[in-house]
C-alpha cells in the first residue's frame, strides 16, 4: 500500500476502485465526473447521497459503521469523462477540518484491499476538500492525491466544477400586527437536478484555501517553454515526452530591501522519504548529502550582486529510491525578517544546458525568518513535479524547518 503526498500519483491496479474518506466526525462524501475542461456535463454528474449513481460512478453509504465511499468502475466511465474528483465535507454545518484531518483510502472495490492512502496536511479553515482524483492519462487510469481546500463548503466545489446551486428561499419574518402583512409574490423556483440540501451557495464565492493548481487548469508542463509559477501551482518536469531530466540546479536569490543593508540568508534543501520521514538536510554547514546526489554552492553573506545568491545542484538520476520529496527553504540566521528582503525568488535550471525551466517570485512577504520556497515530489512514473510554496515559518535555521516542511509535503 502506498502512502501518498499532495500531488503524487499512482497507476490503478484494479478496474473498479472505491475511495472512502474517514475522519473523527461524520463526513459527506461526493464525486463529480469532469470533462477535459474540468467541468461537469450537467448536474447529473454530481454524485452524492441524494443522487447516488451516475455512469460508472456510485455513492456507497457506510451506514455509520464504515466511511462513505465513491466507487468508480473505470470500464463504465463514458467517453469524454477524463476525471472523477472525490470530495468530502463535515456533516455538521459550518464545521471546519481544523483538528479532524480526514484520510482517504483507495481500495480494490471487488476485494476491499487497500491500494493507497492519503491524509491532506495543514488543514484549518477549510469546510470542504477535493481529496482524491481518479483520472485518465494516455489511456490508463491513475489516482492523484489532491487535498485542495475550500472555505465555502461543498457549494464552492460544486460551483467551481459547473454544478448549479439553488438559492435557498429567504425566510419571511412573522407579522407584528394581528393582520398578516402582505407578502410579495415570488417567481417560480428554477427546476434543477437534486442537490444536497446542506449545500449553501457561496455569496460571494471565496477563493480556495489551498490548491495544487487553479481548478480546471490541468497539469502544467514544460511544453511551451519556461514556466512562471504562482503560489501553490505545480509543474511536471517533462517536455513533450522527452527523457526525464537527469540533473537540475535550484537557484535562489534575494536583495536587501533597504539600500546598503546587507542581509545574510541561507538556502537549504531537506530530503524526505515516502512517509514524510526526514532523511537529511543540505545547507551551508553540510554541502553534500545523499551520496553526492545533492550539492550546495556555499554560503552567501550579503545577498548583493546580480544572479543567484546560492544554488543547489540535484542529480535526479542519483537520488536514492527512498528519497521521494525535496523541500527548498531559505532562512535568516541573523534574525532579519523577510519584509526586509526584496526580489526573493527561486528558479529551476537544466544543469546540462543552463536553460531556465521554472521560476517562482516570492510576493507578499511576512515578518518571519524562514520560508519554504518550493518542493519537488517524485511520482510513481519516475518523473518529478515542482510546486511553488511561499509559506513562511518562524525559524532561523534549517533544523527548525524540518517539521513544518514535512507537514507541507
Can you walk through the features of this model?
The chain has 409 residues and is mainly beta. It has 2 helices and 27 strands. It has helices spanning 153-160, 402-408; strands at 2-4, 9-11, 16-22, 27-34, 46-47, 53-54, 57-60, 69-73, 83-90, 103-108, 114-118, 128-137, 140-150, 208-210, 227-228, 234-236, 247-256, 265-272, 278-282, 288-289, 294-296, 310-315, 325-332, 341-350, 356-361, 370-378, 384-393. A 7-stranded mixed beta sheet has the order 1-11-10-3-8-7-6, with no helix packed on it. Strands 2, 4, 5, 9, 12, 13 and 14 form a 7-stranded antiparallel beta sheet that branches. It is globular. The model is unreliable at 167-193, 200-218 and 301-306 (pLDDT under 50).
Low-confidence stretches: 167-193, 200-218, 301-306
How would you write the strand order of the largest sheet? 1-11-10-3-8-7-6
Sheet-strand content, in percent, reads: 35-45%
In DSSP terms (H or I, runs of 4 or more residues), the helix count works out at 2
Oligomerization: single chain
**Approximate helicity band:** under 10%
Coarse morphology? globular
User: What is the first-to-last residue Cα distance?
Assistant: 18 Å
User: Average pLDDT across residues?
Assistant: 80
Number of beta-strand segments: 27
Main beta sheet: strand number and arrangement?
7 strands, mixed
CA gyration radius, whole angstroms = 24 Å
Class by alpha and beta content: mainly beta
The H-and-E topology, N to C, reads as EEEEEEEEEEEEEHEEEEEEEEEEEEEEH
Amino acid at each position: 500500500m502506498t502512502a501518498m503526498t499532495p500531488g503524487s500519483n499512482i497507476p490503478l491496479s484494479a478496474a473498479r476502485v472505491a475511495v472512502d474518506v474517514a475522519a473523527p466526525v461524520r463526513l459527506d462524501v461526493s464525486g463529480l465526473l469532469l470533462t477535459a475542461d474540468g467541468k461537469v456535463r450537467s448536474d447529473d454528474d454530481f454524485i452524492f447521497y441524494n443522487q447516488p449513481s451516475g455512469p460508472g460512478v456510485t455513492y456507497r453509504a457506510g451506514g455509520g459503521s464504515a466511511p462513505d465511499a465513491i466507487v468508480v468502475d473505470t470500464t463504465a466511465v463514458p467517453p469524454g469523462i477524463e476525471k472523477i474528483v472525490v470530495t468530502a465535507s463535515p456533516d455538521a454545518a459550518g464545521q471546519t477540518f481544523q483538528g479532524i484531518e480526514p484520510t482517504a483510502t483507495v481500495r480494490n472495490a471487488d476485494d476491499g484491499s487497500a491500494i493507497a492512502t492519503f491524509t491532506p496536511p495543514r488543514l484549518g479553515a477549510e469546510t470542504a476538500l477535493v481529496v482524491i482524483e481518479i483520472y485518465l492519462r494516455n489511456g490508463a487510469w491513475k489516482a492523484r492525491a489532491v487535498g485542495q481546500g475550500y472555505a465555502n463548503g461543498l457549494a464552492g466545489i460544486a460551483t467551481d466544477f459547473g454544478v448549479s446551486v439553488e438559492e435557498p428561499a429567504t425566510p419571511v419574518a412573522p407579522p407584528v400586527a394581528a393582520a398578516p402583512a402582505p407578502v410579495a409574490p415570488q417567481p417560480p423556483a428554477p427546476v434543477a437536478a437534486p442537490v444536497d440540501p446542506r449545500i449553501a451557495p457561496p455569496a460571494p464565492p471565496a477563493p480556495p484555501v489551498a490548491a495544487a493548481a487553479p481548478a480546471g487548469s490541468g497539469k502544467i508542463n514544460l511544453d511551451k517553454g519556461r514556466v512562471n509559477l504562482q503560489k501553490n501551482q505545480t509543474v511536471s518536469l517533462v517536455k513533450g515526452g522527452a527523457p526525464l531530466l537527469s540533473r537540475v540546479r535550484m537557484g535562489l536569490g534575494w536583495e536587501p530591501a533597504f539600500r546598503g543593508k546587507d542581509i545574510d540568508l541561507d538556502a537549504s534543501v531537506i530530503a524526505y522519504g515516502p512517509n514524510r520521514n526526514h532523511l537529511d538536510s543540505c545547507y551551508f554547514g553540510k554541502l553534500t548529502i545523499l551520496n553526492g546526489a545533492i550539492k550546495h554552492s556555499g554560503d552567501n553573506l550579503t545577498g548583493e550582486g546580480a544572479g543567484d545568491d546560492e544554488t543547489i545542484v540535484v542529480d535526479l538520476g542519483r537520488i536514492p529510491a527512498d528519497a521521494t520529496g525535496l523541500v527548498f527553504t531559505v532562512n535568516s540566521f541573523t534574525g532579519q525578517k523577510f519584509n526586509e528582503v526584496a526580489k526573493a525568488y527561486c528558479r529551476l535550471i537544466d544543469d546540462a544546458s543552463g536553460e531556465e525551466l521554472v521560476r517562482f517570485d516570492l510576493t507578499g512577504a511576512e515578518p518571519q525568518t524562514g520560508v519554504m520556497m518550493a518542493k519537488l515530489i517524485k511520482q510513481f512514473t519516475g518523473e518529478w513535479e515542482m510546486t511553488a510554496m511561499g509559506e513562511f515559518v518562524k525559524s532561523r535555521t534549517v533544523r527548525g524547518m524540518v517539521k513544518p516542511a514535512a507537514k507541507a509535503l
